[in-house]
Design a protein that fits this description.
Order of helices and strands: HHEEEEEEEEE
Low-confidence stretches: none
Shape: globular
Strand content: over 45%
Mean pLDDT: 84
Distance between the termini: 48 Å
Number of strands: 9
Largest sheet: 8 strands, antiparallel, barrel
């Protein structure tokens, strides 16, 4: 009985572990604001991003076009690898369970270097 009491005390006094970005990123992310080169943008960029626990994602752009694939995350970035095409890396500026601030850096011969900032709200996990 004494052992159970000591074990319970030890567990209750342990410091909580900070959740990883892979745990915080799961859910349905709705884009609240987009900034391209520091200017507010209302274009056809990311509209909604669903990050599923099984490692898959669904991305919907402003035109309603869906992209599916797999995702991975570390403390500094979220990588979206579509079934077809090139991977997209969203650098994590801030990330909580409810809010996310991501930066996508692009480079093209026509536009040069472009920075896109996404401010998103996590609506939680939604069954489809």
């Amino acid at each position: 009985m004494m052992f159970i009491g000591i074990a319970t005390l030890a567990i209750s006094c342990a410091e909580p572990v900070e959740p990883s970005s892979s745990q915080r990123v799961i859910g349905t992310w709705q884009v609240e604001e987009v900034y391209v080169q520091g200017q507010v943008e209302n274009g056809d960029l990311i509209e909604r991003l669903v990050i599923e626990r099984d490692g898959n994602f669904i991305l919907e752009d402003g035109n309603g076009v869906l992209t599916v694939g797999t995702w991975s995350s570390d403390d500094s970035s979220l990588t979206l690898s579509p079934a077809e095409g090139e991977a997209t890396v969203l650098n994590i500026v801030t990330l909580t369970y409810t809010k996310g601030h991501f930066v996508h850096n692009l480079s093209s011969p026509i536009l040069g270097d472009v920075e896109i900032r996404y401010l998103m709200e996590n609506l939680g996990e939604i069954d489809y």
